[in-house]
Design goal:
By secondary structure, the chain is α+β, with helices and mostly antiparallel strands. It is built from ten helices and twelve strands. The strands form two sheets. Strands 1, 2, 3, 4, 5, 6, 8 and 12 form an eight-stranded mixed β-sheet that branches. Helix 2 crosses helix 3 and helix 5 crosses helix 8. The structure holds cytidine-5'-monophosphate.
Length: about 300
């Protein structure tokens, strides 16, 4: 009997940035960041199964949240992950990929990045690859700036493009409400708007915010709520002004902190507990700009194998 799996399922988390400080555009087209990534229990599950020899990569199903908006071609990060791992391990990329979505699409919560991270790990397991964590993290960065964090999970400071990751100490868990918007925002468009808005300003080199780090270490949700900040929020609000009403409504309903998640347009609300979360979610669900609300805790673990079939 062979020990080879015929399919592997990996779960990987979405994220919210508790701090997102953005510097001036670099020559390579990216911005230097100081990002405090926080993985939340809204997850993607990716199953990679051995395909027929010569069949190539097939994204055979996408189910769950906004599944019809997910591309099934080579622009899907799970597809690209399979290609990258196959080339690194030296096998033909004959796989069938199924994705179950729990992270909003194009929402600034790194759902596509989570698919990339999950497929990377699943393919590596499927083909019994011998890459170490650093090799996998390097492949993850080729897929996108947020993919290395989805592999790691938890709460971490990310410098550089967000790939120089150091785990942060967190006491307890935090409760979140997320409100998705009726239409997505393009990450490159939000960064271009940031460049335009800050063209005449002094933009400091991004650095970790001690208030965020201390609030996490103390498990102090009220202090964390006050410390949350996102340099891309102004740009996201310039592109989608109605998001300001969503943030205000969440604050009025009792959120400890409110901000746009990453490049948006999903809005993130830190709440004291599940009961406060239900109240905030109930208020937000009534707004016409809000497509759906989701309650989740963080930190959540990074990408991990949850099933193997032989
Ligand atoms: O790395 P990723 O492909 O996810 O980035 C998408 C786009 O977001 C980049 O092409 C770039 O326009 C912008 N970006 C950036 N600086 C970063 C991360 C992303 O300008 N640190």
């Amino acid at each position: 009997m062979t020990a080879t799996s015929t399919s592997v399922t990996v779960r990987a988390p979405g994220k919210v940035n508790l701090q997102l400080s953005v510097g001036r555009l670099r020559d390579d087209g990216y911005h230097p960041l100081a990002s405090v990534f926080h993985a939340v229990a809204l997850v993607e599950e990716v199953t990679v199964a051995v395909g027929e020899p010569g069949s190539g990569i097939v994204v055979e199903s996408v189910a769950g949240l906004q599944a019809d908006e997910v591309p099934r071609d080579a622009t899907n990060l799970a597809w690209r992950a399979a290609e990258l791992v196959a080339a690194s391990v030296g096998v033909a990329p004959d796989v069938r990929i199924s994705i179950r979505k729990g992270v909003p699409v194009a929402g600034g919560m790194a759902g596509g990045s989570a698919d990339g991270a999950a497929a990377l790990l699943a393919c590596h397991e499927l083909w019994s690859g011998a890459l170490d964590r650093a090799d996998l993290a390097a492949l993850a960065l080729e897929l996108g700036s947020d993919v290395p964090f989805s592999l790691l999970g938890g709460t971490a400071l990310g410098l550089g493009r967000g790939e120089q990751l150091s785990p942060l100490l967190v006491r307890g868990t935090f409760a979140w409400v997320f409100a998705t918007a009726t239409a997505g925002l393009s990450t490159p468009a939000v960064y271009r708007t940031f460049d335009r808005l800050t063209a005449e300003r002094v933009v400091p080199e991004p650095a970790a915010d001690e208030a965020v780090v201390a609030a996490l270490r103390a498990g102090d949700a009220a202090a964390l709520g006050r410390a949350l900040h996102n340099d891309l929020q102004e740009a996201a609000l310039a592109l989608r002004p109605t998001l300001a009403d969503v943030l205000d409504a969440g604050r009025s309903a009792g959120a400890l902190g409110a901000m746009v998640s990453g490049s948006g347009p999903t809005c993130a609300f830190l709440v004291a507990d599940a009961a406060a979360g239900a109240r905030v979610a109930g208020t937000l669900a009534g707004l016409e700009q809000v497509r759906s609300t989701h309650v989740a805790t963080g930190p959540a673990p990074g990408a991990r194998v949850i099933a193997r079939r032989r």
